[in-house]
Amino acid sequence: MSTNTRQSFTDTTIEVRKFDPNLERVERYYIANDPFKTHFSNAMSITFPEGERYFLRSVLAYRDEISDPKLQDDIKQFCAQEAQHSLVHDKLNETAKRFGYPVKAIEAVISRVLRGRTEWAKTSAFWKRYNLAATTCLEHFTAILAKQALTRPDIIFNGMDPAIRALYQWHAVEEIEHRAVSFDVYKATGGSALLLRIVMLITSFMFIFTSLRITYVLLHHDGVAFKWSTWKSAIGYLFLPPEAMLFRVIPDWLTFFLPGFHPSKYHGDLDTRAVLNEVGEYLQPVATV
Ligand SMILES: [Fe+2]
Ligand SMILES: [Fe+2]
User: What class has domain 37-280?
Assistant: First the structure.
């Protein structure tokens, strides 16, 4: 498809920033000395570098079909932001390797699955479309998590190492900025709303399952997977106030299924400037070409 009509509905400026964390002194349990919370964070961080590189490939596969210069520019900024996120999460994952966790083996499995899907997409229109749909769904998921991080920082970051807190805050701001790009590419290239909703159900399950599976592997490595204190922390974090992460995200997750849903209609009121000021000491602007 190639038209000259408006294809980008992203009204936010997508700015690429370099985040330079000093993670040298990060401790083994960097969230309130709590193994579950730390490893749940590690689990997500381990999925990010390969996951975000998969997002890039999935969106770039459609780049030649986009005629709107604004959406072309959004794609470029989206890719540059996600590339920075991958690099910084690689650094965070290095700290987990330093403590002896089997990060490399887990990354190898994720890489094999996601790179396999990209390979399939080279000869299959279905997989090319599926990859973009999965990226669009996971971008909604990351925007929801970002909103949690930005609106409830005292709860989400309670007891977290300050450098890692800043890392997640920066990542959250940029996820909000580029939340609509993959969706716009999906729509502009004729993606079906029904397929998107089906893929949302599949990817949501896979995202939660994978995060918890990796968390379990890391907890098992420490020999604390079946300790009552670990389960107490997990139940509280996922289901009970004040965190209740799984319950808190449900209303925003459901918006995806509303007729006429577009990511730019949501989260536009978040005060990302204040958060960027807070983490400013770690940031440098990056010129993109
Ligand atoms: Fe990201
Ligand atoms: Fe993203």
Answer: mainly alpha
